[in-house]
Amino acid sequence: MSEVNEIGSAGCICGGNGPKLTALVELLLPSGEAGAHFRQAHLELLKGLRAALDQKIEAMSQAPRQGTKLNVE
Predict the structure, then answer these.
(1) Is the pLDDT assigned to residue 46 strictly greater than 50?
(2) In terms of pTM, does the model score above 0.90?
(3) Domain segments of the chain: what residues?
(4) Which of 11, 14, 50, 70 is surrounded by the fewest CB atoms within 10 Å?
(5) pLDDT, averaged across the chain
């Protein structure tokens, strides 16, 4: 008898339903020029998130570390 882990029987969070979910998403997304537009928009969104994260990482790296000194009895 095989043991089922907490995540799912296929060892992934989707429980082995990844191909079905991918097919559903592909079915719902428009094809042709509209689909290409949405894919490009998705790419631009991800690039924007990357730029925002890079900016935040740089700011945190340059900022002096601040903390509060506590007296422990």
Answers:
(1) yes
(2) no
(3) 31-61
(4) 70
(5) 83
